[in-house]
Design goal:
With 301 residues, the protein is of the alpha+beta class. The chain folds into two domains: 9-165, no CATH class; 170-279, no CATH class. The protein contains nine helices and six strands, in the order ααααααβββααβββα. The strands form two sheets. The protein has a four-stranded antiparallel beta sheet, with helices on one face. Strands 1-2 form a two-stranded antiparallel ribbon. The protein is elongated and about 70 Å long. The termini are far apart. The mean pLDDT is 90. The structure holds zinc ion. Zinc ion binds next to loops. The site of zinc ion (ZN) has 8 residues, from loops.
Amino acid sequence: MRANSALYYRHSGAVGIVGPLFMLMLGLAAALVLGGIYGVADWYSPFIYLNFLLTCLLGLAVGIAVGLAAKWAKVRNSLITLVIAGVCGLAAVYAAWITWIAALSEFELVTFGPLDLASVIQMINAKGAWSMKNWTPTGGSLWVIWGVEAAVIVGMAAYCPRMVLGTTPFCERCERWLDDSVTYGPLHATANHQQIVTDLEQGNFNTVHQLLKVPDGAARFREVVLTACPTCEDLQLITVRTINIGLDKEGKETRTIDNIVLNLLLTKHQHTALTQHFDQLPAAVPPPSPVAADELPHIQT
Ligand SMILES: [Zn+2]
């Protein structure tokens, strides 16, 4: 799909000096507080499913905190964000160990130092700390369980800033995120996926112009998203995506989004022409409902 990546928006990679420090401070604060609460909750949780839910929530919350800090501090570097979020995830795991051991010992043993903590963890691992259906995991199996738990927290923390930052572009000239886009749709999903990519990459908008509106309620349709910096003429973008509406096992509506082109760069002139075209697109004509023959108007000949 990305035959020519120069045609698409990419983050500049700029981070500044304050940005990473701010992300680290906010991320670590969230990690230490939430990790500490998690450690206690994890020990007292009566259900294994609740433990797993709490594990995911901890990673999610730390990742979102780092993502919000990255957005506020205007950090446009995915790798730096990933590394800082991963470090904060590790800090959450560390804080969780401190309070978990404290809770397990009825708050008689509170260990902060990494070496002391490691030797206490080794002792607990040899004896086991909890049982499930007459099985008390120790040694290798307990290391695996703890390893998976830590991996879920660090992995989710590292991944979740993407949920906050998403694919939002940033105008380097005006130093602002372009959060406001105009979405046109639902549009016909008939045009060939690859044809749309090829045409748009060649600056040919004919295929996109042929996307007419469809009535609301379609199970599959397309959307055209136009984004532009409101204060300069440096950055204009188009995204074309297919939306599939389905039902899950419980009958709840699901929505999957398949980006055909994502943030393709446009000139100011192209953006203006596309905006005018889609602003003037006629409303969808609903399909004719079947009419009984005797209800048809009588036409005199
Ligand atoms: Zn701008």
